[in-house]
Amino acid sequence: MKKFLTLALAIMMIAAMIVPTSAVENKIVYSQDFNSVKTFEELGWEAITSFTTPTGSQTIENGKLLINNLKDAEKNPSPKDSYWVVVPDKIMRSVIANDYTVQWDMEYLESGDAARYFVFLLNYDRELGNTYISFHMRPKGWANFQSRLFGTWANLDVSGSTEGNITRPDVRVKDENAISKYVFGIDYVDENTSVLYNKVMTVRMEVHAGKCIKVFMNDKFVTATDDAGWENISMFNGAADGYSEIALKVGSTMKGYIDNVYVATGIGIPASAKPVETTKAPETTKAPETTKAPETTKAPATTKAPATTPSTADMTAVYAMAAMALVAVAAGMAKKARAK
Q: What DSSP letter does each residue of 232-278 carry, written as one string?
């Protein structure tokens, strides 16, 4: 009997350890790799003018979205921060009530101000135009992770954050812990020097409903909401109206690329959704070469998220099989104990 109780306790401990990271099915609700569109207008993204009117140019180049919001005396004399709704409320309203993930690639080419940035906004409200959640990576090497409510900013990671055995200070630090150093090995220099040109940054924001938001860059954990930070944004999540959309914000005086935009329910981006090395599209536009893409779509090799956040459905099946096996062993032992 003692052995049976010991095994039963072990089963309960294992069951507690193998609860899936998310109870929500991990599936894509929006994706865009810019390979099947020729113009920005084809994307169907809605320009928002409630706060500012979009400026600059937006074109498709080499299978990526090229955004040029630099100041130009003739073409763009007064560049402004610009906003487009990418995934509307009719899709996101139900998504934000549970776990979900947003991921994108970006590459800065040039800027008139090392403080400006590109970013996809969570919980955007189109009517207000200045209410959202934002992780914005600045070309000078550090970032902000903030909520903006009616134009007022609040930092979401003031006390730092921990993921597994990795502990990070808040993302505003400018020393050896600066994000540019942590992710790319590039030192922060000063407030006027851009150090992140021509670097592809894959940003992934994982929203664990009712708990926290975790942010990764190039598969490295960079920050998460602390307790105070989650309190600042809890009002956004599960809202019946508004505060739900995904929007793109383009800072004034910025030029660069956007690519591989994904929104998925659950935690992580399903491996089947991710194209491989789409930044090399110009080299693979020759039909014989692009037909080989399926052979190279080993998503874990390019974006390792599946390795750290496996499909909930797959893991649930594995866990169920393991639990059933353990229960069967326990039942057998119990039967033997009764026989004695």
A: HHGGGTT-SSSS-EEEEEE-TTEEEEEEEEEEEESSS--GGG--S-G
